[in-house]
Amino acid sequence: MLIIFPRIILTLFSICDIIHIVMLNTDKNGDCMSKQNTNITVTSLLKKFPKANRGDLIPILQCVQEAEKFLSKNAMMEIGDFLKLPLSKVYGVATFYNQFKFHPPGKYQIQICRGTACHVEGSSTILAALISDLKINTGETTPDGLFSLEVVACIGACGLAPVMSINGEFFAKLTTEKIKHIIQDFRDKEASNE
Amino acid sequence: MKIEINHQSVNMPSGISILDACKSANINIPTLCYLEDLFPSGSCRMCVVEIAGNKNLVTSCSTQITEGMKIFTHSNRVIAARKSILELLLSNHPDDCLYCDKNNTCELQKLSAELGVRNRNFSKQLIEKEIDKSSPSLIRDPSKCILCGRCVRVCEERQTVSAISFIKRGSQTKVTTAFDGGLNTSNCINCGQCAMVCPTGAIVEKNNIKDVLAALADKNKVVVVQHAPAISVTLGELFGFKPGSDVNGQMTAALRKMGFQFVFETSFSADVTIMEEASELVDRVKKGENLPLMTSCSPGWIKFVEHFYPEFLNNLSSCKSPQQMMGALIKNYWAFKKNINPRDVYSVSIMPCTAKKFEAGREEMITGGLADIDAVLTTRELAKMIDMFNINLAKLKPEDADDPLGEHSSAAKLFGVTGGVAEAALRTAAFLITNDDSQVHEIHEYRDLEGIKELTVTIAGITLKTVVISGLSNARLVLDDIKRGIKQYHFIEVMTCPGGCIAGGGQPFGLDKDRIVARMKALYQIDKNEKIRKSHHNKDVVKLYEEFLMHPLSQKSHELLHTKYKPRTGY
């Protein structure tokens, strides 16, 4: 034993005197999470909530979405840091509400009505056609940024069922065949503009 | 307060819930979302009871007793309601019990049997959800989830990690990480406490039995195994032993029967850890830097610091955990002694922990191009393997572990329980300071399941302020106090799981306090009966230093037994 430990024993005796003045070493400036990309808009928006606590999460999410048109990952991370809320909670609250979007809106925002009248007239097949044509799910935006797809409860045009609106323009009595043409028309229009 | 339960008059203290009152009257009420010590959520509705004069049934977990209350826990109405609730939960539950990891240990399955569910009364509305296999420690299958929220609450309230939460709503509701990514993208610390409380097969450990079986069948491999200090007092429970039974010898025999060529004990490297960590403490106190010294045995805690308190990374002991030390010693010391090519060694560890699976795969845990550990099995997986080999644990004659890495002191056994590392460390430190080996320090202040245990020890004029923590919500409290300058310590022991490894994420499912206490008592009993009770008395450890490592904190031990961690991002 003594072969191994003389070093330690000596050390321990020598520290008897200094042990009282040992100060515990902690970094007072340490921040919990290192932020990656801070978003200038979000940072400045958060300044509007100087005394914010977790109860302000929804107003903050609304405020950020209004400015940015959607809630980006970075924005939510920054909000989480700001409110000292775990990101899983921020995301959990945001996804609970239909009003929050997680993708930037497309140039053409498609709202497909899934209200009762449209449902009876077969809006589920219309939605399926849109999903397969655009290759995105509801709530998403096509990679080229052209189309975003959103489901709404009723747009008050039951007489035109099944109906959808693209940037406010209504398309009535839809069929899967019509869908193909409408989407293609927008794509052609975009191609000729370029 | 006088109340009546099932026509029996009983006296109960006021302010407690109906569920607790019934429990102390020895009446069992089924629960799925209830968790002891946490605020009741009342979400599963399984614990409903009937109260005389009340129109509706009430959830017993979230209703307090009142004077003269007449409670019926198993009336016809109550049983019918519970059965309907269960049938509704089952309406979108996959019926693949036969293929489920939780078969025979599932609470939902058990309740269905108890309530006599024998046919499907609600048509199947199965919503297929993607299985998350991204974590090296845990597998999540959201389609088996009944949304009881136990995992979310444990992660948030006990561990303050909040890697998972509820997202979306209604039929779309799902327990998942931020942005619905895999666990590996989150700040999950792999502690597995979620798996411990999950009543279904929605969260289970990542099963590595297949890898181990393949290695055992490979003639070119020398398969060695180590088992952690906490395993011997928990494994028995899965084979009908009463909680707290020590099956160390039988387990060693079983491991040999399954084909493991050498059986070692992680307790050996726990003794080595004590030698290194005690020296490190002395070194740091002498230099006055990086204090308090924080233990580094618990991989969940390490990841917690990396994510949430990177400013304390330098305070962590640079010692690898006993699992990793043992792995490094097996391949770099034992193999050479035995004249075995370390590349032919397949090193398995049996751990009470799911985070150990993650730890074994860390890039810091590669020595000389070889992973220290090749596969990690939890206590539960070991039990499954023993079953697979049809071994009757109770009938085995106890065997001793292999030399030299099988020798251990009982101080090392204490690594399995909160406070044990600190106690073991102080035993050796006391000798180092006083050079007096006449008495064994039993530190009773550390010996309970409290989450924060402070103790100031004075040994020969040297004062050491220590704190022992289990459960990361408690660690957060202490770290925040240190940051604010309210508290100062020299030595901090942290175990991720409340109670320590005896309640680790790889142990038999459930967090029943009585069982955990029995396991703790068993470890202290082992310590009491053992002759060698101090790490520096472990002869093989002494020999290891004499012939290989030279002395604690030597260059060799730095190469093999120490490491460093860096800040980590993740949400």
Quick overview:
Chain A is α+β, with helices and mostly antiparallel strands. Chain A has eight helices and four strands; from the N terminus they run αααααβααβββα.
Task: Give me the secondary-structure topology.
The complex is a heterodimer of chains A (194) and B (571).
Chain A: H1 6-14, H2 40-46, H3 57-68, H4 73-83, H5 87-96, E1 108-113, H6 116-120, H7 123-134, E2 147-152, E3 164-166, E4 169-171, H8 176-193
Parallel strand pairs in A: 1-2
Antiparallel strand pairs in A: 1-3, 3-4
Chain B: E1 2-5, E2 8-11, H1 18-24, E3 48-51, E4 58-59, E5 70-72, H2 76-90, H3 107-114, E6 138-140, H4 150-158, E7 164-167, E8 174-177, H5 193-197, E9 203-205, H6 209-217, E10 222-227, H7 248-258, E11 262-265, H8 266-287, E12 293-294, H9 299-308, H10 322-337, E13 345-351, H11 355-360, E14 366-367, E15 370-371, E16 375-378, H12 379-388, H13 410-413, H14 420-434, E17 452-459, E18 462-470, H15 472-483, E19 491-495, H16 513-529, H17 539-549, H18 555-561
Parallel strand pairs in B: 1-5, 10-11, 10-13, 12-19, 13-16, 18-19
Antiparallel strand pairs in B: 1-2, 3-4, 3-5, 6-9, 7-8, 14-15, 17-18
